[in-house]
Design brief:
This protein is of the alpha/beta class. It contains 10 helices and 8 strands. The radius of gyration is 18 Å and the shape is globular. Bound molecules: adenosine monophosphate (AMP), fe (iii) ion (2 copies) and zinc ion.
Length: 276
């Protein structure tokens, strides 16, 4: 009974619709998946409905993009009340900022002699939160680069000419947002962080879990983050960060999983949060 607790759908930068994602998880014999789109809950009602139809547990989730200085820190939120008014109002502010940022990136690319049609990128994307991967895919589709990696490397990473930062959100704020929507905040892929000093501060701010199992984590990182969880009474979670077939061979659905028991643990914590 395995659960993949980190996946993306077309509500953010995934390739599969929430329904298709859940269907694939079922076909791969997973007992549960969490849909954790970047900064949006737009895919969750479709995903949960698909779960009911197909007979697989779908955990409502989110992955909030935050920064401290120039460092990216992603905070997962599990079992959030995704219809919570305050949460949705805050998320709308961030998705609107992502739309404006996308336009600025397109403008910067134009100044470099690269012409992409923002409207058609948005039309293809639909609802939810739009990000650099959508622009990377358009760069590739229009023959400006040969790979997504090249798109990021040449134009979209910090320090490259078309980079535009997102609207700032601190990880501490993200933890509060998730807790106030009765969700469980979990630090995503800590192995990609540049410093681990921050983890203690996140724990004091209400972090409740760490994503220990992740395709890019080394065995010694897995060991270290499991130890941190034990020491601090946090839930060790795990997931593949799947974005769709063909997007990254390393992040295939089901590549990193946890036992279904972890889903039960998160659910129990949610009940406790609700009673606070
Ligand atoms: P954004 O939230 O718009 O800043 O885009 C961040 C997302 O882009 C991440 O969550 C990844 O899905 C993707 N991403 C970031 N860096 C790269 C990269 N070098 N190659 C491929 N995808 C990337
Ligand atoms: Fe992504
Ligand atoms: Fe992430
Ligand atoms: Zn992710």
């Amino acid at each position: 009974m395995l659960a993949d607790l980190h996946t993306h759908s077309t509500a953010s930068d995934g390739i599969l619709s929430p329904y298709e994602l859940v269907k694939l998880a079922k076909a791969r014999n997973l007992a549960a998946i969490a849909i954790t789109d970047h900064d949006t809950v737009d895919g969750l009602s479709e995903g949960l409905e698909a779960g009911k139809q197909l007979g697989i547990t779908v955990v409502p989730g989110i992955e909030l993009s935050t920064q401290v200085g120039n460092w990216e820190i992603h905070i997962l939120g599990y079992f959030i009340d995704y219809s919570d008014g305050k949460l949705n109002a805050t998320l709308e502010k961030y998705t609107a900022a992502r739309l404006r940022r996308g336009e600025v990136i397109i403008q910067k690319l134009k100044e470099l002699g690269i012409y992409l049609d923002w409207e058609s990128i948005l039309n293809r994307h639909g609802e939810g939160s739009v990000g650099r991967p959508h622009i990377a895919r358009a760069l590739m589709a229009n023959g400006y680069v040969d790979s997504i990696e090249e798109a990021f490397h040449k134009y979209l990473n910090p320090g490259t000419p078309a980079f535009v930062p997102r609207l700032k959100l601190e990880p501490f704020e993200a933890i509060k947002m998730i807790r106030s929507a009765f969700g469980i905040p979990v630090l995503a892929h800590p192995g990609l962080l540049h410093s681990s000093n921050l983890i203690d501060q996140l724990i004091s701010s209400g972090l409740m879990g760490i994503e220990v199992y992740y395709p890019l984590h080394t065995p010694s990182q897995v060991q270290y983050y499991s130890y941190l969880c034990k020491k601090n009474g946090l839930v060790p979670t795990g997931g593949s960060d799947f974005h769709g077939i063909g997007t990254s061979s390393k992040k295939t659905i089901g590549l990193s999983t946890v036992d279904y028991e972890v889903v039960e643990k998160l659910k129990k914590l949610k009940k406790q949060n609700n009673q606070l």
